[in-house]
Amino acid sequence: MRGGWTGKVLRIDLGKSKSVVQDLDPKVAVDFLGGRGFAIKTLWDELPRGADPLSPQNLLILATGPLTGISMPSSGKLVVAAKSPLTGGYGDGNIGTKASVQLKKAGYDAVVISGKAEKPSTLVIENEKVEIKESKDLWGLDTYKAQEELEKQYGRNSGILVIGPGGERLVKFAVITSEKGRAGGRPGIGAVMGSKNLKAIVIKGSREIPLADPKEVAKLGADSFKDIKSKDNYDFWVRQGTMATVEWANANAALPTYNMSEGVFDGYDKVGGNAMERIYKIGQKGCPNCNMPCGNINEIKEGPYKGRDTEVDYENIAMLGPNLGIDNMNWALTLNLLADESGLDTISLGSVLAFATEAMKRGLISSDDVGVRLEWGDGQAFLELATRIVKKEGFGSLLAEGVAYASQRIGKGSERFAMHVKGLEISAYDCHAYIGMALAYGTSPIGAHHKDAWFISYEIREGRGVVSEERARKLIWMQNVRGGFFESAAACRLPWVEVGYDLEWYPKFLKAATGLDYSWDDIHIVANRIYTLIRAFWVREKGGWNRSLDTPPAKWFEEPQTKGPLAGSKLDRGDYERMLSWYYENRGWDVNGVPRKSTLRNLGLDWVIPELERVVALSE
Amino acid sequence: MKIRFLGKPKEIMGREIELEVGEIRLRDLLERLPREVRDLITDGEKLRMIVLINGVSAESRGGLDALLSPEDELFIMPEISGG
Question: What ipTM score was computed for the predicted complex, to two decimals?
Fold first, then answer.
């Protein structure tokens, strides 16, 4: 390997307190790039089928990519992955943190953690020195305090990943956090870390990241940083970032409101980017190597957390604001801070609280069941219930299992408005009027997450309501770029869409970093391989795979929006099924969404066939 | 003709403006906007931002060549990628 990859993978067995360094197979590097690609390859190869996600068997994987940490825009990403305790399938997330760069500088492309420490522990990686230290004093601390303690001990430039009380108590949507407010691993990767008695990971590296052509990387990097700064909307982006999306989504009837019943919200402007800029914003935060930082730091002006500050973006505020009927930014910020300190995913938290409120409104559960009377917009009630979720007390312990499980337990038809796909709560776009985005959620490889394809912009630009094979193919293209390339390379996608940074920069960076010539066609083959292997993993773990697992909840099909410019909109089942069929055909999967043998062979995944055939009959 | 804006164009132009025009191509209408706004919306060859004509994408009506009538309402917004 000439560069980009370090060529080394660090393996840690917490139960045996042992570590070993292995060479990275160059073919795996070329075929799977890194990040998400490495994670799924490792999980397929090494995790026994049916392993309990919260058992010592599960693997916690931290994976960089060939672009991580190099001198290029937004290269500060790290993928955290495991078999998900929330969904039972493949789970991952990315996180922008010093830990990603430090891991590459320590000399590793990835860390694979197995077993369970006997006592609460911190894993400390300093180049070749690896220690598992008992850290009873950190257990129980929130993520902010734990971060501060570790910074005192190891320095502010260390890469630090921690879990909060949510992860320690195995809340199924607990995340891994870093640097007070950066978070990754929506499908419960923080709970996997907690199940291993691992409170924190500290990474310090002092080596140069190997590069095939360091001069070319430096030149491309300098040109790119300049290019991004010269973009027309750069200044607006830096001021509002993704928070501008609140107004945008409301204008397009896609703002999640009242548990995704509506797409518009009367008080949207009180919790949007303009209000943020005017009243609440006090600072800015970004990942390493980013010159268009997306993290807006806001001060809470009123309420129990008055005077504290918290980092937000669109997803947090939409799900903890309008989706709960909250038009008071202070309450949305308060819930966000609680989630970040506790190490919970803000999207899933917003979804389970909204689900419980709708269930109470429909008379399926009572305030006696929940212990709190839930009303849309009542921030105090949501704060109390969220606190019970963190502590897993009473009804909070049911919601801590996620919306899919909670709806199965409550029954009475509540599954129809449990807003998830494959067990992962839907992120912050209402899709009553957006069949393409609904399909993106339906087919996202970790459950209903927006990161693989944010299709609404494209759908509006190219015409809403189009049901065609071309539209399904475009979705695959977008998933391959976002979820295949960016999640594996691993770099942030925002420069591309938000300020119009040209995708053609990326093959140039790959060449300068690794010495290998990847065309975009080559990258799409890599992405197809990754998506198909992830699908094979789901089928292997779940068995009995069928199309319903790729379908959004009934609400969007059965209960139209009643307000806003697209009032009356709902999804059509026949149209959705047609789109899903085209999607499967173009991915090379059969009518149930299971990869065909020929597809597996064409993608060099022949070795998957025998194991997959143990659980399902494969089509040719 | 009524034109609504979102994002940076809104900061420059305000939420909504009205222009006195007859039948006009989108390309020519955009020429009537200040250059800094026009450059955000189009590179001259294609649309950089989303333009809706009465709620329907301008792309489906010929892009910059779309023919507009004075009663049409335009909505111009950036393409964004979400959280």
Answer: 0.93
